C-alpha cells in the first residue's frame, strides 16, 4: 500500500512539468503559446496609450510612475503635457492610470517585452492628419495645443486597440486569456465611447484655426484607417449617411459598429499597417519608428 501511495504522489508531482512542456515558460502554464502571442501583441498599443494619456495630463509617464512596467525600454519621443481644461484633464488622467493597470494585467499573465520606441511628437500626429485629409494642414495639427485637439488625437488611439481585442478573442484557447481580453476590451471600449461622446457633443464645431468640423476630422481619420488597414470598412466617423447608421435610420454615429451594430475586428497585421502609417506591416514608421515588438510584430519585419 505504501509503495502505491509513493508512486501516486510522484506521478502527481510530475504532472505540472509534463503539462507545461506544451506551453511557454510564462508563470501561468495554462496559457498556450498561441495565446501568449495574442496577449503580448497589444502591449504595443497599451504602452502607447499609457504614455500619451499620462504625459498629456501629468507631463510624465511610466518612467516616473512605474519604471518596472517600462522594463528599460526607450522613452517615447516628442510626447508632452497638453493644454487641457480641468474636466478633460481629469478624464485623460483616468485613462492614463487605467492603461497602467492594463500593462500590469497583461504582464501578470505573460512575460511581455520592454516598451518599444514610440514617436508621439506633434509632427507624428500632424502626419496622421495630413494623411487623413490627403493634403498638408496649415498650420500643422498639434495634438497638445488644446483640449479639442487632444481629444481628436485620442480618437486615433484606443479604437485601434479595441478592434484588435475583438479580433483576438475568438482565436484564444485558454479561459484565462479569454477572461483577460474580455476585461481589457470592456475598458478600452469605454474609453473610446467617452472620447466619441465628448467629440459628438461638438460635432458641428469647427476645429480652429481650420474651417473643418469635428465630425469631418473623425470621418477623415476613420477613412484613413480603413485605407491603411486594407480590409474594408472597419471604422466609422461620428456622422455617417443614414443608410450606414444604426438600423439604417440615423446619421448620428456616436458608437461605431457593423450593420448589426456589432463591433468591428482587426488582425494584428491590419493594426500594424495603421500604426506604422504606411499600410504595410513589414515597414515600420509612424508611431513605431523601429517597429512594434512581440513575436507577431517581429515576424513581419524585413
Characteristics:
302 residues, mainly alpha, globular
Report a brief summary of the structure.
The protein has helices spanning 2-20, 33-40, 43-58, 62-65, 67-70, 86-107, 122-133, 147-155, 158-168, 175-200, 214-229, 268-275, 295-298. With 302 residues, it is mainly α.
Describe the structure.
The chain has 302 residues and is mainly α. It has 13 helices and no strands. Helix 7 (122-133) crosses helix 11 (214-229). The longest helix has 26 residues, at 175-200. It is globular, with a radius of gyration of 21 Å. The termini are far apart.
Estimate the global geometry from the Cα principal axes: globular
Q: Ends: how far apart?
A: 62 Å
Structural class: mainly alpha
> Main β-sheet: number of strands, strand sense, barrel status?
none
The low-confidence parts are: 1-26
Number of helices: 13
Radius of gyration, rounded? 21 Å
Total strands: the figure is 0
Q: Estimate the mean pLDDT confidence.
A: 91
Layout of secondary structure:
Blueprint: H1 2-20, H2 33-40, H3 43-58, H4 62-65, H5 67-70, H6 86-107, H7 122-133, H8 147-155, H9 158-168, H10 175-200, H11 214-229, H12 268-275, H13 295-298
Helix pairs in contact: 3-6, 6-10, 7-11, 8-10, 9-10, 11-12
